[in-house]
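To fix ideas at the outset, we first show an illustrative case, written as a sequence plus integers encoding its fold:
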Amino acid sequence: MPKHFLHLSDYNSEELWEILHLAKEIKTKFCNRENYKPFEGRSLSMIFAKPSARTRVSFETGFEWMGGHALFLGPNDIGIGKREAIKDISRVFSRYNDIIMARLFDHKHIIELAEHSEIPVINGLTDYNHPCQILADILTIWEHRGNLEGLKVTYLGDGNNIVNSWLQLGIRLPLHFVCCSPEGYEPDAKTIKRLEDSGVSSFELSQEPYSAVKNSDVIYTDVWASMGQKEEAEEREKVFANYQVNQKLVKQTGKETLFMHCLPAERGREVTNRVMEANYSIVFDQAENRMHAQNAIMVYLSKLTN
């Protein structure tokens, strides 16, 4: 059976480092415009229940640069879990394609898709987690710091799928992760317990932004209302008002700190324009690395399958 990329914690630390080193190698090839075609004559189906510009462009560009053909299937092209059983879609696509990438709402759907697939399935995002993003994030931090030793990452905002994936990364790679969220917006409790039980990383919940960011190597944030939560946007803006990342907050770290955002950003809400454009903002390096990390994931899975 193929190995899938559904959760970061499905891989051990050695495997994650192997993918990260592979991402660096493939990035160098891309930047040098080398002829690198591991997917020549192969195809990737990209299923989007949740639309996304960056996910589509990064997967499609990366796979086609590596010689393959990527097919985009939007919400109107395939009603996953609605018009047709997920296990049927999985079985059919396994006979057409070499890899499936799916960006879905319900996490159970990506699990079912993988269970019935004879080809690798990549989790492009669910409401529960976003492993491709966090792999790109840690690649970016590694590039900028040169190492991951003694890393403290402080996240401010909703304890969402981004946070759950950071927690899963912490089960495998050591770091100190702080989630600073208003009461009632904490990340998944079971995932927190898994991290704490692993003994690999330390974790802290906070509701005090100014104390949470002290000594942080990275400050990270995300939109306050994600896709599917827009009807809550007005209420969330009030709840999260004190969690905005601005210059004053960044200065509280007491050290040189990197700023990250998985995008799209709502400037003036969760982060100010000044922080987004600051020299310590690595947001666009982070966005670029989505493609390189995902390319490495696809190449790695392909090698395991073959």
Observations:
- The chain has two domains: 8-130+290-305, 132-286.
- The CA atoms of residues 45 and 93 lie 8 Å apart.
